[in-house]
User: Fold Orotidine-5'-phosphate decarboxylase from Christiangramia sabulilitoris.
Amino acid sequence: MTSQELTEQIFKKRSFLCVGLDTDLEKIPTYLLSEKDPVFSFNKAIIDATHKYCVAYKPNIAFYEAIGADGWKALKKTIDYLHSEYPEIYTIADAKRGDIGNTSRMYAKAFFEDLGFDSITVAPYMGKDSVEPFLEFTNKHTILLALTSNEGAFDFQTLKNGEDELYKKVIETSKGWQNSENLMYVVGATKAEYLADIRRIIPENFLLVPGVGAQGGSLEEVCKYGITKNVGLLVNSSRKIIYASDSSNFAEIAGAKAEAMQNQMAEELDKL
Assistant:
């Protein structure tokens, strides 16, 4: 899916919501554990209840890796289900990969070719040759970690590197990489006040913004500093939606939470 196609979906659905599928067997409704594939059963129910209100899903790959081969099968089934039933949905592999070139190339093949994701999150610490193998897939997006929502982000990301903080140097440097027009960036909602500076460096690129909801980030603040005329935002919510209830009608309640966020986003879009 191209950025233009994603933007069209945003305006069509009046939403820039990304639902995180951080599916944890210890948190899903217990009755699902008797299912043959409880992870996929949970994901399918969440997707069916929320797809009208979001434009993207973001499985956090660690939750699938943690349960071994069954987890990978559930992940593949989830992406295949999205492709067959809701092909307009954008998919993000939240894998945070990044390694020497030939290894990154294999990661890219795994997530783009085998699993069929539209994009993947990538850690830039190893530099250009660890990221460009993902960017070689010109019909896919690479989402670079820039300024994350966790407390430890201040350990390194905001340290000064000359006149600028490290995260700004990462963003500025990445603009010179091969096919950099296919870069998106992770910027945490809990760092909304930094978005104005980030937009001065990358005024048009999409930003994936986690941290709204359970982590306390403000949607209004994110939009105040980060939204563009083409929106340019994917705001992720995971736990606040998918774990809103552990009752038998968990999916219905998740759908209501997603709809509430979509309504807030529609109000922000009306301001453009």
